[in-house]
Amino acid sequence: MTAKNLLMSLLVMLAVTIVSCQKEPSTSGLHEDYLVYTDYDQQTDFSDIEVFYLPDSILLIGNSDKTEYWKDADAQEIIGTVAEQMESRNFIRTDDKELAQVGLQLSYVERVSYFVGYDYPYWWWYYPYYWAPGYWGDWFGWHYPYQVYYGYTAGSMLIEMVDLTAEQESRKLPVIWDSYIGGLLTSSQEVNMQRTLDAIDQAFAQSPYLTTNSLIR
């Protein structure tokens, strides 16, 4: 073997050694931030919607058999952030459910894990503390007009927009937009709160179709 060939062989061996010693890219960082999932009914023309209703509390989904709601200052800041995002897109908030075309319901998972799938549209009926269709009026049930398939655990938030004007024989209440937010829990309450607010902003940022033609103010 010539000196030139020997040098080339050594360089190849060195390159293989360097590559083989490289560590696999770490995926641990994927768990260090929040996750935002959004979906919507593509048959809905959001530009025709003007008025929305947003309750003054967040439903808590935990281990209690009784209905629990989150209403403190932190909850009001979260609710206010959702309202601001809606109003920034020219939607009008009302305090009268009878005047609203859509309703927004916020739920926060405290401790337990749940799963929702497209094939199981009544999953929430197993949990008596979930938003009941009757809260919005004379509705018998719910349905998602689009595919929904995900699981979520403690420290997750769910935002759902329901159509209060739908006319269906079955009287099912359509969820026309929803956002699942996960990864909100850390050891710092301040960080948890900031993550939640940032994630809500992100949910609306990745939903550009949520806008209306209403110019009423």
Distance between the termini: 86 Å
The percent of residues in helical segments reads 10-25%
Low-confidence stretches: 3-31
Mean pLDDT: 78
CATH class label: Alpha Beta
CATH topology: Double Stranded RNA Binding Domain
Number of strands: 11
Sum up the overall morphology in one term: globular
Rg on CA atoms, Å = 24 Å
Number of helices: 3
**How would you spell out the order of helices and strands?**
HEEEEHEEEEEEEH
Largest β-sheet summary: 9 strands, mixed
Please identify the structural class as seen in this structure: alpha/beta
Count of discrete domains: 1
Q: Topology of this protein?
A:
Layout: H1 3-21, E1 35-40, E2 51-53, E3 58-61, E4 68-70, H2 73-88, E5 92-94, E6 102-109, E7 114-117, E8 141-143, E9 149-152, E10 156-163, E11 172-182, H3 189-205
Parallel strand pairs: 2-5, 2-6, 3-6, 8-11
Antiparallel strand pairs: 1-11, 3-4, 6-10, 7-9, 10-11
Describe this structure in words.
It contains three helices and eleven strands, in the order αββββαβββββββα. It is an alpha/beta fold and 217 residues long. The protein has a single domain (27-205), classed as Double Stranded RNA Binding Domain. The strands form two sheets. Strands 1, 2, 3, 4, 5, 6, 8, 10 and 11 form a nine-stranded mixed β-sheet that branches. Strands 7-9 form a two-stranded antiparallel sheet.
